[in-house]
Amino acid sequence: MTGFGKASSERADKIINIEVRALNSKQLDLFTRLPNLYREKDLDIRNELANRLKRGKIELAITLEYKEEEQAVKLNAHAIKSYYRQLKEIARELGDDINEPLLPSVMRLPDVLNAHKDQIDEKEWADLMGALDRALRELDLFRVQEGHVLKEDMLSHITSIEGYLRQIIPFEKERTDNLKNKLSSNLQELFPSNGYDKNRLEQEMIFYLEKFDITEEKIRLQNHCSYFREVADEEDAVGKKLAFVAQEIGREINTIGSKANHSNMQKIVVLMKDELEKIKEQLMNVL
Predict the structure, then answer these.
(1) Per CATH, which fold does 3-71+122-143 belong to?
(2) pTM to 2 decimal places
């Protein structure tokens, strides 16, 4: 499910800004962009995201805004001076006249930036996690709003399937009468003088019609639709459970289609399948 959340935490020397974005995905994919100061906490932050968000393509960005009196980047003055003196001395020994400034070259050498690494104290870590919690709660609000829209949309398709199921009922008697008439007509052509056992014919016809009976499929389909509604009302993550129920709905629709043997019933089955596909598409976005 999609969502966005952001939060900030202001400290004496800097402001911690956090943004979290979530896009639809079957699995949990985490992407984090952290300042060097927080790299050591990357695993803890990822675990928090995984526990809270469960699923989706998640992008987390943490940025720092240093206040004017603070330095976002610290220079290692001792290393810079040492590099500079050594380069000049080497050039003098080699008899090489240096026509270009050395300082730009020195600044590209190792250890000239961040002479000492700041450490995260417990208070800063608590501030960071507090801001992350607020950002995730804001993202959850987006997800909840989207979830209500998805739920209403899927239940509307379930209602359509139930409506189409009721439309099948009037064609069942017509289908049975057509099958009986067809069998009788074929027998009349094969045995013009009624040279067949009518009792045996009735037994075979009952057996034949039972193979095309869809009473059980209709009951199971209605039960699955009702269960879909129950699961959709649950508070926990229900995406996978709804997908399983949708799979069972599809199985009953397919069986009704294979037994239909009636053009109008098969047309209705196609419409039911179309509604089910729309549900499956939406389930891709449900946790």
Answers:
(1) Ribosomal Protein S5; domain 2 (3.30.230)
(2) 0.65
